[in-house]
Amino acid sequence: MTGSFTHGIKTVLHPVSDLAKAKAVYAALLGIPPQTDSSYYVGFEAEGQHIGLVPGGGPQGMTSPVAYWHVPDIEAKLAEVIAAGAVVQEAAHEVGSGRLVATVIDPDGNVLGLLQDR
Prior knowledge:
It comes from Herbidospora solisilvae. InterPro entries: Anthracycline_SecMetBiosynth, Glyas_Bleomycin-R_OHBP_Dase, Glyas_Fos-R_dOase_dom, VOC_core. It holds the Pfam family Glyoxalase. Residues 8-117 form the VOC domain. This is Glyoxalase. By secondary structure, the chain is α+β, with helices and mostly antiparallel strands. It folds into two domains: 9-58, Signal recognition particle alu RNA binding heterodimer, srp9/1 (2-Layer Sandwich); 65-118, 2,3-Dihydroxybiphenyl 1,2-Dioxygenase, domain 1. It is 19% helix and 42% strand. The protein contains two helices and eight strands, in the order βαββββαβββ. It has an eight-stranded mixed sheet with strand order 2-3-4-1-5-8-7-6, covered by helices on one side. The two termini are 24 Å apart.
C-alpha cells in the first residue's frame, strides 16, 4: 500500500425500477428536492454526499447500490486494486464535465466504484 487514504465514499448510485416513485421516496427521506432531475438520472446533494438514482441500473446494468470512492488519480488506484486482486468491470471513462468513473469487482463479487473529478 502506498500513501494514506484521504478520500472517501461521497457518491452512492441506486438502481431503480420506477424513477418517479423512487425520486419521491428519496426526496422525502433526504428532505430536499433533487439537484439533477432527468429521465435517465436523478441526483441529490445532501450533507456532502451525492445520492444518485439510475433507472433500470443504467447502461452498466447495476443490480444493487454501488458506492463510489473519490480518488485523485483513477488510473493509479485502478492499477493498485487490480494488483491486489480486484477485476475490472467497467474501465475508466468520462461521464461528463471531466468526471471519470470506473468499477471493479472484489474477490467476493461486490462492485466497487472509483470516481475522479478533474
